[in-house]
Amino acid sequence: MKNVDRISKIKRMRTWANWNIGLGILLMYIGYAFFAGYLGSWFEKNYLFMLILLLIGFIMTMVATVLFMISGMVSMTSPQVQCPSCNKVTKMLGKEDACMYCGQPLALTEETQ
Ligand SMILES: [Zn+2]
How many domains are contained in the chain? Predict the structure, then answer.
């Protein structure tokens, strides 16, 4: 039986960062599209509205980039363990994490540390 309710922390961070980049770029596009008048004339030539959307989009993309960097650095230093259910080598973040491939919950014990 696959246990998929648990997602490994590194994977979760990457998924989150990925969504953040997508949404951030989408927000920036929407801001520009409104400004140019593609999406109706309510916010056409409205600099403040575009600026706010561009800033939010930019910040979201930057946060996602930092998250990607952190997840990259963390996965370089985190210990590797072999998953007992799918036998693949996965990485542990913290004392408790889940397998990156099958979602099997894992815990670091004294002997594996
Ligand atoms: Zn596994």
Answer: 1
Model pLDDT, residue 113: 46
Give pLDDT < 70 ranges for the chain: 1-5, 110-113
CA of 80 to the centre of ligand 1 (A): 12
Q: In this structure, is residue 112 part of a structural domain?
A: no
* pLDDT value of residue 30: 92
From the list 113, 66, 88, the residue with the least C-alpha distance to 8 is 88
Enclosing domain of residue 78: 9-107
Kindly state whether residue 1 falls inside one of the protein's structural domains: no
**pTM, two decimal places:** 0.73
pLDDT digits over 103-113, tens only?
888 888 755 44
Cα of 108 from ligand 1 centre, angstroms: 15
What separation in Å is there between the alpha carbon of 2 and the centre of ligand 1?
Answer: 9
Q: Which residues surround ligand 1, an ion (CB under 5 A)?
A: 83, 85-86, 99, 101-102, 104
